[in-house]
């Protein structure tokens, strides 16, 4: 076993000529106070907190921190009442269910971004300012640092003060960031609005021909909702409304003329398939881009055909069309007999024949236009069906070739 040896070392005395070096002029250290300590002035928030700590909280820092937090909340509530002009625009306060909070940021294309930001009640009608406010509230509520601090386990160690001991998962915070990135960008927001999951669900409940022909079918209630649903995609604004049972002939014709020439900005880029991760092949990228382009065109054709089919269905069930045709028939008969509501109208035989011929030509032209519109709709529907068949054949061939 090793033995411990003690060595006596003699430290020489300091020479009498030695003087303590003074601090250089460039030093940031101030010279020591003559009395060896500094005087604490009884002013300022630090001194007030010192008094609170010693007099009211028995030098318990945790108790003082709770008191200061409660005081800050009280002052914030007073400022909120004193400044009613600060308005959050009524957004970002919706309840968050477990399904929303457990979203996976990797599956970002499947998210309902309006629901993530608490804008489900506004959706496509939300303004940029409302989106900004909703994002701000969500960020303040779900920021990882704040959540970690609120749920951090207590620690008595002074060395761990202020250190985040919580391994909080910030997945939902990433979903909030992605939602704001999409909805604050006009182009990305249009792409998302085109395939809004709520709108897709509503499309499943569109009226069928069988429902339209039923006895208890409410034409104006049903089709007003249908056309309001699709009016969001119109490039031309404002969109004429369906009207009511007493709408004039000009209003009815203007409505159907607008929808038969409906110009939609709806697109389907959001549904594009991504190139396989880790693939640097240009051929793969070209093939994916070509396939996405074909799919977008197919979906666009189907959407146009669907809108045209709804317009045809509405026209066939519109009770005003029957009334207008009956009024035109009565007007023609009245003119034929030379009788009007104000009294007999005396016209020559040539004038009556000319008017009769003109009315017949107008009626024939209108019927031809309606027939052409129906034929065009049928043709578009057939083209969409053929395109779908062709796409399925191409996909089948590609799968067999692979």
TrEMBL record:
Pfam families: DnaJ, ZUO1-like_ZHD. SMART domains: DnaJ. GO terms for cellular component: cytosol. One of its GO terms (molecular function) is ribosome binding. SUPFAM superfamilies: Chaperone J-domain. One of its GO terms (biological process) is regulation of translational fidelity. It comes from the Eukaryota. This is Uncharacterized protein.
